[in-house]
Amino acid sequence: MRKVMTGNYASAYGAKAARAEVVAAYPITPQTSIVEKLAEFVSSGEMNAKFISVESEHSAMAACVSASIAGARTYTATSSHGLTLMHEVLMWASSARLPIVITNVSRAMAPPWSVWADHMDSVAQRDTGWMQFFCESNQEVLDTIIMAYKVGESKDIMLPSMIIEDAFILSHTSEPVDVPEQPLVDAFLPKYDPEAKLEIGSPKGFGSLVKPDQYMEFRYKAMQAMESSRKRILEVEQEFERAFGRSYGGLLDEYRCEDAETVVVVAGSAAGTVREVVDSLRVKGLPVGMARLRAFRPFPREEVRSLAKKVRGIAVMDRSYTFGAAGAFYTEVCGSLYPLAERPVVKDYIVGLGGRDITPRVIENIFMDIIEASDRGESAEPEWVDVEGLGRRWR
Amino acid sequence: MTSPTTIPEEEFAHPGSTGCPGCGANLVMRYMLKGLGERTIISIPACCWAVMPGYWPSHCLKVPLVYSAFEATGASISGIRAALDMRGEEDVTVVGFAGDGGTVDIGLQALSGAAERRTDAIYVMYDNEAYMNTGIQRSGSTPWGAWTTTTPVGSDRAFKREPKKDIMAIMEAHGIPYAATVSVGHPEDFVKKMRKARDVRGFSFIHAFSPCPPGWRMDPMKTIEVAKLAVDTRVFPLYEIDDGELTITREGKGKPVSEYLSLQGRFRHLSEEDVADIQVDVDARYAALKARVAKKASKDDE
Question: Which helix (H) or strand (E) holds B73?
Answer without folding.
Answer: helix B73-86
